[in-house]
Design brief:
Helix 7 links the parallel strand 9 and strand 10. The chain starts with a strand and ends in a 14-residue tail after the last helix. It contains 9 helices and 12 strands. It has helices spanning about 10-20, 50-55, 90-105, 110-120, 140-150, 175-185, 205-210, 230-235, 280-295; strands at about 1-5, 25-30, 40-45, 60-65, 80-85, 135-140, 160, 170-175, 190, 215-220, 240-245, 265-270. It folds into 2 domains: about 1-90 and about 275-295, NAD(P)-binding Rossmann-like Domain (Rossmann fold), CATH 3.40.50; about 90-270, Rossmann fold (3-Layer(aba) Sandwich), CATH 3.40.50.720. The protein is about 30% helix and about 15% strand. With about 300 residues, it is of the alpha/beta class. Strands 8-7-6-9-10-11-12 form a 7-stranded parallel sheet. It has a 5-stranded parallel sheet with strand order 2-1-3-4-5, with helices on one face. It is elongated and about 65 Å long. Bound molecules: NADPH dihydro-nicotinamide-adenine-dinucleotide phosphate. One of its GO terms (molecular function) is hydroxypyruvate reductase [NAD(P)H] activity. It comes from Sphingomonas tagetis. InterPro entries: D-isomer_2-hydroxyacid_DH (IPR050223), D-isomer_DH_CS1 (IPR029752), D-isomer_DH_NAD-bd (IPR006140), NAD(P)-bd_dom_sf (IPR036291).
């Protein structure tokens, strides 16, 4: 039984050692080993090519090396191949840090103070207490819920929005199209932690963002494809939105002449909110392969027709 790994070499070296020490029953291979592709049952990859998939006749499961699976071209995967996203504690820990930083920066007016600093203007703003700053998270999955748990400590009123109804202590939960207007109207800082699918592409557009209260702000840590760039820019320019923290863009890297780089009310980072920990990622993968061998449900299996 073999696993083929095709993402970055540094991760591959860590994974090779952990598989050898902790899962000797699974043969860990990379293309540089010139493996017998006919015996590969599992593939761990970022963007596997159609040509590679066609050379893996025994393939049963494709594991994403990250939390998202939008980079896979599902149409080119044979119907029987199962797709699993990465769920491991390092991804959630990084996301909790990043979103906490972004929310606190927006809550404590760091965008305004950055503008004032560049103008050498000493201009204190009225302090808004956390209890008066409503946080709304789009996507109540593994990461959305982890972020909400950490933000609860500050005392922000919390709400969330998902496809199906959820019940989470301390969080006002909304669901589906019908739940979206009420969710948006009661959100001062909107955090996007949705997967990118046919249903969610372009969801952060003028129609949705203009339903946020005047002065609200956005944290996009989902995917760049969720956001309609020129709608965000015009809502920032006309003052409807107060600021945005963007970790993801479309395309990536963002072209040097894009207005996001220089906009005074945008804080931009190069898709670094969180990343898969090599060590706990390897162990999550081993646990899932063992579940698959035992005929048990795998953690993070994606409904291919739904796209997440
Ligand atoms: P999950 O699959 O665990 O959760 C997805 C959530 O989104 C679910 O609550 C789901 O609803 C909701 N959702 C999906 N489609 C819709 C829809 N059409 N309408 C409303 N809600 C919807 O994903 P994760 O929490 O693990 O990850 C979320 C995303 O975060 C990833 O897909 C990736 O794009 C992004 N990410 C970004 C990183 C970065 O560094 N910037 C790092 C890691 C992830 P329901 O619960 O009803 O199914």
């Amino acid at each position: 039984m073999s696993l083929l790994h095709t993402s970055n070499a540094a991760r591959g070296q860590v994974w090779r050692d952990i598989f050898a020490a902790e899962a000797p029953e699974i043969e860990f291979t990379e293309l540089t080993d010139a493996p017998d592709l006919g015996s590969v049952r599992y593939l761990a990859a970022w963007e596997p090519s159609t040509e590679l998939i066609a050379r893996l006749p025994a393939l049963e499961v494709v594991f994403s090396v990250s939390a998202g699976v939008d980079q896979f071209d599902m149409a080119t995967l044979p119907d029987h191949v199962r797709v699993v996203r990465m769920i491991e504690p390092g991804i959630a820990a990084g996301m909790v840090e990043y979103v906490s930083m972004a929310v606190l920066a927006l809550h404590r007016d760091l965008i305004d103070y950055g503008v004032a600093q560049r103008a050498a203007r000493w201009a204190p703003l009225k302090l808004v207490p956390a209890e008066a700053r409503r946080i709304g998270v789009m996507g109540l999955g593994n990461l959305g819920q982890a972020v909400l748990r950490s933000l609860a400590a500050f005392g922000f009123p919390l709400s969330g929005w998902s496809r199906s109804p959820h019940s989470i202590a301390g969080v006002e939960c909304h669901a589906g199209e019908a739940g979206l207007p009420g969710f948006l109207a009661s959100t001062d800082i909107l955090i996007c932690l949705l997967p990118l699918t046919e249903d969610t592409r372009g969801i952060l557009d003028r129609r949705t963002l203009s339903q946020l209260p005047r002065g609200a702000s956005l944290v996009n840590v989902g995917r760049g494809g969720h956001l309609v760039d020129h709608d965000l820019l015009s809502l920032l320019d006309d003052g409807h939105l107060g600021g945005a923290v963007l970790d993801v863009t479309d395309p990536e890297p963002l072209p040097p002449d894009h207005r996001f780089w220089s906009h005074p009310r945008i804080l931009l980072t190069p898709h670094i909110a969180s990343t898969t920990s090599a060590e706990s990622g390897a162990r999550a993968l081993i646990a899932n392969i063992r579940r698959h061998v035992a005929g048990a449900p795998m953690d993070g299996e994606v409904a291919r027709d739904r796209g997440y």
